[in-house]
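Exercise: predict the fold of this chain.
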Amino acid sequence: MAVVEIVSFGYLHSAPPAAHLTIDLRHHFRDPHVSPELRYMTADDEPVRTAVLNTPGITGLVEATATAVAAFASGPSAGTVTVADGCAGGRHRAPTFARALAERLRAAGHAVTVSHRDMAKAVVQR
């Protein structure tokens, strides 16, 4: 099985990190930031995780990304597979997605690390 590094980030903070796969969650999945009760929470808070994981399409995208990681891992060049997943601010969708993907990949036997580049940064006022 592969070693997989997952990095969540926010596009509004800076450019995406270098990765084999970059998943952009901004345009197709509702942003919890628009809900005042969720805006100042992060993926560490259950209401945010519930809102993101109940968004239609998210679990399918987790599965599809896990399939893509397996394809990279089965290639002839061994090495870490890096996945970067981003949303607007990096506090809600991206870290929740990263954790769900990590859980799925660990269940498949991969060694996974997860980091959240921007989750601890201040809410972007927009």
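Check your answer against the key: Strands lie at 3-10, 21-24, 81-87, 111-116.
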